[in-house]
Amino acid sequence: xKEETFDQTITFHEGITIPIEMKDSINNLLKxxxxxxxxxxxxxxxxxxxxxxxxxxxxxxxxxxx
Length: 66
Fold this sequence. Notes:
66 residues; alpha+beta; three-stranded antiparallel beta sheet; 2 helices; 14% strand; disordered C terminus
């Protein structure tokens, strides 16, 4: 993967270009999904999940709820 900052986009190996904001949004959704999957598998308690999701929301994550 090659990153280009001059246009605020990221270009992937096949010439696919996405805006930085979209990349950040995708990363945030993936993190939330991982947290929820760990909770579903009983690897995180309810309190740990709530803490991770709320701290994620405070640092710029999406606020789409559970």
